[in-house]
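User: Hi! I'm working on a homework problem where we have to compare a predicted structure to a textbook description. Could you give me the structure for the chain below?
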Amino acid sequence: MSEESVTRARDWLAKHGYKSVSLDFSDGLASAVGDIEGLLEWERNFGYSLDGKLPHVAAIHEGLQFLPVPEDGGLVLELSSIDSALVENEEWTLGFLRMIARESLQRLALGRRFFAVIYPDTTHPALLERALDDFWIPNPFRFRGPADSQGARHA
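Assistant: Happy to help. Predicted structure tokens:
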């Protein structure tokens, strides 16, 4: 995904009041463990450290319940290079995305906006249009930039 597209997405999210939290999987799943541990305040909420080990996806689901979602705007997880994680460990990565999708629906039912934005590697497009149980990873959403207000469209 181009840096310009990522910038447009981030600008749109900020303009609409979303707080963003980034998880970068470009250096593999193990490198993202620390970010997940920090995001979910793992030691405080679970009483132990992950010590660099991937947590079970059911524990991720529990951990997401502790994640504070602001009343105004919402919270978005920005997932960079998660398609690389898919190649490394498909079962865990799809389970992780399932937990995010389920938590998103549960939060929406409670009037809170929480979801993930995926910034894929262009080298591993296999994640697009994948089924996650009853959920699908859709084709990319085109965030509108300033030129769109005058009728121009971004490719």
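For your comparison, note the following. The beta strands are 18-24, 74-80, 114-119, 131-132, 135-136. The chain has six helices and five strands. Good luck with the assignment!
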